[in-house]
């Protein structure tokens, strides 16, 4: 059951990314390009996605997931160095290529060499991240 | 195109629906970088099957939908592989250090009014915007 729900959720996610045009890097970079030929599409995608999710969160308190278990705990409210440094780094990569992890997967079938190379580099980065995060923490305690 | 924003809104609703199904069904946050990253660094191996099933859905549906479009489907990604590699490394490292990307911090975090999600989104959008200014308008690389 978990597998089927995951497949369905992933299928919806992939369909949405495809339909919305978010696997087109010109639309993503166009949205970030405030001083150029600005493309508002991404704002509509984000706005659209927030509606079902905001409704879903309202069902969470006092209930359990369909397959059992428990809903994720509310996140710790603290904003730490990892969150800020990681997000800035992610933003730089997102701006450079116009791709983030979801669309990178969704566009693998038609993204050509660039798509495959991006995916490979992203996976290498993800593999290296835990060690880099530890160094980042050590840097924080040293200073 | 004129109707791009409508398809953006429709696609966005479908993305949010996927997140709602994953949350209410399996009790999980739909964050692409977390789902992939957990498989890469081993932290998510205990739930490998549902992670792979999710990713299979993401990969397969665009293949199913592509024939419905009369225009050629392409990412228009740069063919400058140095830029692509640098971007991929930044996205991979950054999303895992920050513990989330556009789907996890953006869609799932903001919709529950999580401070971390909102702060992360502000920072990656600002960084992305500045990257465009620097590398497109000043350096002309992308």
TrEMBL record, chain A:
InterPro entries from the UniProt entry: DUF6691 (IPR046513)
Keyword Transmembrane: yes
One Pfam family, short name: DUF6691
Keywords, ordered alphabetically: Membrane, Transmembrane, Transmembrane helix
Transmembrane segments: 41-60, 83-106, 112-133
Name used for this protein in its record: Membrane protein
Species of provenance: Seohaeicola zhoushanensis
UniProtKB/TrEMBL annotation, chain B:
Superkingdom of this protein's organism: Bacteria
Membrane-spanning intervals of the chain: 6-25, 52-71, 77-98, 118-139
Bilayer topology annotation: Multi-pass membrane protein
Subcellular location per the Swiss-Prot or TrEMBL entry: Cell inner membrane
Gene Ontology terms: cellular component: plasma membrane
Keywords carried by this UniProt record: Cell inner membrane, Cell membrane, Membrane, Transmembrane, Transmembrane helix, Transport
Keyword Acetylation: no
Family per record: Belongs to the TsuA/YedE (TC 9.B.102) family.
Protein name, entry field: Membrane protein
